[in-house]
Amino acid sequence: MRRGPHESEPDALHDFLRELTRFMLSFSGEGAEGVARGVRSVARAYGGRAETVLVADGAVLSVTVGGRTLTSTVTAFPDVARLDRAVALKEFVERVRDTRPALPEAAAGLRRIENLPATVPRWARGAGIVLFSVGFAPAVQPTWYEIGTTALLAAPVATLTVLSDRRPRLARVLPLLAAVLVSLVTLGLLQPGHHHGGPVLIMLPALFFLVPGDLLSAATAELVGGFLTTGAVRLVYALVLLLQLYVGVLIGVAVTGTPTGALFDTAQDADLSRWVLVASWAVFTAGLVLAFGVPWRAAGWVTALVYLSLGVQAAGTALVGEVAGTFVAATALAVAADLLARPTGRPPRLVLFLGGFFTLTVGSLGLRALTSLAGGHVLHGFHDLMDLVTIVTTIAVGLLAGAALVPARGDQG
């Protein structure tokens, strides 16, 4: 017989909420505020009260029910490689909050989410990473050469990424290995001339899946929002990933004997039509759906927010400049993703948000800045660094502004 909301056993409720906290840290992709809100709402549904103190990869959970308080720690490494789990977890939390199943039944539901089979085979995820990179390539240089070289360079990156899914040690150095490989092929095999653009611009789209622009802006948003510990940890982790890419490129430069002065990122003249540029973002979105395991029923929402972000940013930049245009686009994306994610059964905010966020991301500026500095182009490198700081902060503040414009959700997850 199902227990009433005020009859939950403290030990059973605590154990269930501890597992839920671990799952949300691992699979939901939510920041500190989102995880705490979701856990509180489920605890309240069972007649309890939960408080959490979160860091990026762990939490202290305190559960009070029936006058008894239990406290434990939870550790989990955030992983958004499988967004189908994020969708299933949001639907699970909504169902538990509304129907309050028996705790053993709810715990079994969590285990089913953890054991969900992948929505696409491994080869399709690899193909998605290639499409993701190829679709992004025209945003770096709008040329057919950039698209062709990206298809070639992204294939080994996709292979390494898929192999690392089941090899944790490989995953830890994946950005470094991928950057070395891409740098060796670009500088040793392709040997692009000056009329093809700088070599780093040719490498960037193939490495974009690994560039931590989303982490940089998310970390800044958490810092600005007052979540100092989680924001600082994410920021350091993003910088470590960026430095792996930077060192990997320099290793390729050293092995091929390429002068570091060649790392100056001159751009080739555009030879793509406007319609190809517009269509490239549809290719990018299809790649994102496959690469991150987004359920196909959410693909339409993801595509809509990608083009919303692009349209608002383009219009804003034309009217008031790049910084203000990016701020308006980030604000519009935050408002749209938050409102669209609220109804029951809709994809979570992260899934709706991620594609549009990638269109605004600026992690590539960090890599370009570091390689320009390594090549002796000091003024150009510091210019890119200033652009990085400015745009990351602009996106973060825009996201916070968007969150402030929508009505509060309370603890409804």
- Overall SS class: mainly alpha
Number of strands: 3
Number of helices: 17
Low-confidence stretches: 1-7
Percent strand: 5-15%
Backbone shape: globular
Average pLDDT reading:
82
| Main pleated sheet | 3 strands, antiparallel
Query: What's the helical proportion of residues?
Result: 55-70%
Oligomer: single chain
> In sequence order, what are the helices and strands, one letter per element?
HHEEEHHHHHHHHHHHHHHH
Q: Order of strands across the biggest sheet?
A: 1-2-3
If you compute it from the alpha carbons, what radius of gyration comes out, rounded to the nearest whole angstrom? 22 Å
Termini gap: 27 Å
Summarize the structure.
By secondary structure, this protein is mainly alpha-helical.
Notes on the protein architecture:
It is built from 17 helices and three strands. The chain has helices at residues 10-28, 32-45, 83-99, 103-114, 122-140, 144-164, 168-172, 174-190, 199-207, 213-224, 228-256, 274-291, 299-320, 322-341, 349-360, 363-374, 378-405, and strands at residues 49-55, 58-65, 68-75. The radius of gyration is 22 Å and the shape is globular.
Q: Which features characterize this protein?
A:
mainly alpha, disordered N terminus
SSE diagram, text form:
Blueprint: H1 10-28, H2 32-45, E1 49-55, E2 58-65, E3 68-75, H3 83-99, H4 103-114, H5 122-140, H6 144-164, H7 168-172, H8 174-190, H9 199-207, H10 213-224, H11 228-256, H12 274-291, H13 299-320, H14 322-341, H15 349-360, H16 363-374, H17 378-405
Antiparallel strand pairs: 1-2, 2-3
Helix pairs in contact: 1-2, 1-3, 1-4, 2-3, 3-4, 5-6, 5-9, 5-12, 6-8, 6-9, 8-9, 8-11, 10-11, 10-17, 11-16, 12-13, 13-14, 13-15, 14-15, 14-17, 16-17
